[in-house]
Design brief:
The chain is mainly beta. It contains 1 helix and 44 strands. It has 5 domains: 102 residues, Immunoglobulin-like (Sandwich), CATH 2.60.40; 109 residues, Immunoglobulins (Immunoglobulin-like), CATH 2.60.40; 78 residues, Immunoglobulin-like (Sandwich); 81 residues, Immunoglobulins (Immunoglobulin-like, Sandwich); 87 residues, Immunoglobulin-like, CATH 2.60.40. It is a single-pass type I membrane protein.
Length: 560
């Protein structure tokens, strides 16, 4: 490299400076010397080497003591380069007839330390010019320049908005520069997450270079511009018995720590932190909720609906009624929204609501009226009705001769609740028959059956008894030698229907015959009446004939 037409050696601070003597060694060389020039131009000799004796001598110069080395080709090396080594050095080769000189310029460079942002502001306030910090970089040579950046873009000075001051201080002992750049800045709300950094630009042996500081993010304070109220709940809906947590927040930094909460039924605001908790809420908690800053400058509101579900079952619990009685049943629902209602009887869902105009035994059971609000998780109500249908024992007895003609089956058909106890006796002897077989007790009905082979006519008595009454019915049974057939009561339901149909047919025939007889009677009466009238006319005519005969006889007597 050439500086002002002169050969230049660029050295790094602390490294070794190597300066070759750029002269050709002449014939008859006696010795070579190196010197440097003072600012006023006067020379200072620092090294000598004889060409004949091959010995090297270094001058007593304090700045270069123990730092110099002169090689056989007259190359001068200076250890531990310093800023003070930036001089004009001259290589001299001397013969008897001539002195040759070749100058070399030495330039020393020192890379600065990585810049740091010191004295950082604890926080920044919007709309206020304040010191953000100082970017400091040390031990640079030559001096460098400092530039501020925000989010990777250069911060240009703007009057009363961006104010930058650069200060450079040189260490007199080392000649190195320390550069300090301060930044005054008016932040905005958008600077809350901005990254500020600084870069030092310096020159090295190979040209211009830069070093960047670590970015810094500042806490930017700005006032609240909006208040927001939230309902914190485990589900999207609120029901009676839930806990409600209201949270109020402001979008300022730092956020407000206290608020005024306004709840339904309270005229004055309740001062609290950013949360307000209500436990075990009831339906009267439904309404508009508000929160405001303590100075009431900003407010927000929300509406909370506390869902409820009431169920009233009438009657409920255990109810005992008599067979044939009426029992009105009502399941009344009161809710915050339309509720779904359904009935369950003995673990089976019913298609319609129960209604009893005349209770039967099969109506007894466990009834559940259940309702839910499908839109509200966990809101369900149910009530139960245990219906007991009681009845005094009712007995019907049937008999038939079995197909083998060797025995007869006598059945006592019993209805009643609680289940009656059945006992058989033989009238006359009063002996108890213990070989009866009972069918399954279903819907208040069952049968008790005995099989006998009587040698003579007997009377059997069926006794059915429960807590309500004792019922006794007797049936005459002929000896086994006299066949007896099923009575209508012993037939099944299909046969009963057939019998009923036949009975209806017989009744219809009888009614028809009666009507026909009535019509015939009326016709006969009309006929008889007409016949009597005709007889009267005949009698009258006959009377007239008799009278004529008598007149003729009288006339004949007169003539005689």
């Amino acid at each position: 490299p050439l500086a002002l037409g002169l050969y230049t050696v660029n050295a790094v601070y602390g490294d070794t400076i190597t300066m070759p003597c750029r002269l050709e060694v002449p014939d008859g060389l006696m010795f070579g010397k190196w010197k440097y020039e003072m600012p006023n131009g006067s020379p200072v000799f620092i090294a000598f080497r004889s060409s004949t004796k091959k010995n090297v001598q270094y001058d007593d110069v304090p700045d270069y003591k123990d730092r110099l080395s002169l090689s056989e080709n007259y190359t001068l090396s200076i250890k531990n380069a310093r800023i003070s080594d930036e001089k004009r050095f001259v290589c001299m080769l001397v013969t008897e007839d001539d002195v040759s000189e070749e100058p070399t310029i030495v330039k020393v460079f020192k890379q600065p330390s990585q810049p740091e942002i010191l004295h950082q502001a604890d926080f920044l306030e919007t709309e206020k010019l304040q010191m953000l910090g100082e970017c400091v970089t040390r031990d640079s040579y030559p001096e460098g320049n400092v530039t501020w950046y925000k989010n990777g873009r250069v911060l240009q000075p703007v009057e009363e908005v961006v104010v930058i001051n650069l200060q450079k201080i040189v260490d007199k002992s080392t000649g190195l520069f320390t550069m300090t750049s301060s930044l005054q800045y008016v932040p905005t709300k958008e600077d809350a997450n901005a990254k500020f950094s600084c870069i030092v630009t310096y020159y090295g042996p190979s040209g211009q270079k830069t070093i960047q500081s670590k970015p810094v993010v500042f806490d930017v304070h700005y006032p609240t511009e909006k208040v927001t109220i939230q309902v914190l709940s485990q589900s999207s809906t609120v029901k009676e018995g839930d806990n409600i947590t209201l949270k109020c927040s402001g979008n300022g930094n730092p956020p407000p720590q206290e608020f005024l909460f306004y709840i339904p039924g309270e005229a004055e605001g309740i001062r609290s932190s950013d949360t307000y908790i209500m436990t075990d809420v009831r339906r009267n908690a439904t309404g508009e909720y508000k929160c405001a800053l303590t100075d009431k400058s900003m407010m927000d509101s929300t509406t909370i609906t506390v869902h409820y579900l009431d169920l009233q079952l009438t009657p409920s619990g255990e109810v005992t009624k008599q067979i044939g009685e009426a029992l009105p049943v009502s399941c009344t629902i009161s809710s915050s929204r339309n509720a779904t209602v359904f009935w369950i009887k003995d673990n089976t869902r019913m298609q319609t609501s129960p209604s009893f105009s005349s209770l039967q035994y099969q109506d007894a059971g466990n009834y559940i009226c259940e309702t839910t609000l499908q839109e509200v998780e966990g809101l369900k109500k149910r009530k139960t009705l245990k219906l007991i249908v009681e009845g005094k024992p009712q007995i019907k007895m049937t008999k038939k001769t079995n197909t083998n003609k060797m025995s007869k089956t006598i059945v006592c058909h019993v209805e009643g609740f609680p289940k009656p106890a059945v006992q058989w006796t033989v009238t006359g002897s009063g002996s108890i028959i213990n070989k009866a077989k009972e069918t399954k007790y279903v819907n208040g009905k069952f049968s008790s059956k005995i099989v006998i082979a009587p040698e003579e006519n007997v009377t059997l008595t069926c006794i059915a008894e429960n807590q309500l009454e004792r019922t006794v019915t007797s049936l005459n049974v002929s000896a086994i030698s006299i066949p007896e057939y099923d009575e209508p009561e012993d037939r099944n339901d299909d046969n009963s229907e057939k019998v009923n149909d036949q009975a209806k047919l017989i009744v219809g025939i009888v009614v028809g015959l009666l009507l026909a007889a009535l019509v015939a009677g009326v016709v006969y009466w009309l006929y008889v009446k007409k016949s009597k009238t005709a007889s009267k006319h005949v009698d009258k005519d006959l009377g007239n004939i008799e009278e004529n005969k008598k007149l003729e006889e009288n006339n004949h007597k007169s003539e005689t």
